[in-house]
UniProtKB/TrEMBL annotation:
Keyword DNA damage (UniProt): no
Transmembrane segments: 23-44, 50-70, 90-113, 119-138
Keywords, sorted A to Z: Membrane, Transmembrane, Transmembrane helix
GO biological process, one term: polysaccharide biosynthetic process
Source organism of this protein record: Actinomadura rubrobrunea
Subcellular location, principal: membrane
Record's subcellular location: Membrane
Topology relative to the membrane: Multi-pass membrane protein
Family: Belongs to the GtrA family.
Official protein name in the record: GtrA/DPMS transmembrane domain-containing protein
GO CC annotations on file: plasma membrane
Domain annotation GtrA/DPMS transmembrane: ranges: 26-145
Length: 150
């Protein structure tokens, strides 16, 4: 007769802890990037009178640089780095796709729907940011910050 060891609740979810930690770290980095992007977009658009698209692009590029450094050295630090040149190129390429998603949402709100208020502008920013963030998280895990070799 073999005795089984009791399993406590804390050890039962251990395999999920790295994923949860990674997701929470990614979310925190995303929040910092969001503050940079939305704050910068609103400063450029409403205080400096920039156009709706340019006001999204410039702060998103700044946010992307901060996000790369934070994600590489904190969120995905446990994953292999296959060489900074390749990794950076793919990261910024995928962020270019994310930027297109964001600007499409902002452009659609502003130009297609004709909504020019500050609330509409920020709603378009947030919708684009949510869609682009989902794409970025998936693509970073798949192509940029790959699992560490065993």
């Amino acid at each position: 007769m073999q005795r089984s060891r009791p399993v406590d609740a804390a050890s039962a979810d251990v395999p999920h802890r790295p994923f949860v930690r990674e997701l929470l770290s990614f979310g925190f980095v995303g929040c910092v990037g969001t503050v940079i992007m939305i704050g910068g977009a609103n400063v450029l658009r409403h205080l400096l009178g920039g156009g709706p698209i340019v006001s999204v692009v410039l702060p998103t590029v700044a946010s992307t640089l901060v996000s790369y450094l934070a994600n590489r050295h904190w969120t995905f630090r446990h994953r292999d780095s296959t060489g900074s040149g390749r990794e950076v190129a793919i990261f910024f390429g995928l962020n270019g796709v994310g930027l297109l998603i964001q600007t499409a949402c902002t452009g659609f709100t502003y130009y297609t729907l004709g909504l020019h208020s500050g609330v509409a502008y920020n709603a378009g920013l947030l919708a684009g940011l949510a869609l682009a963030s989902a794409f970025r998280y998936w693509s970073y895990r798949k192509w940029v910050f790959t699992p560490a070799a065993a």
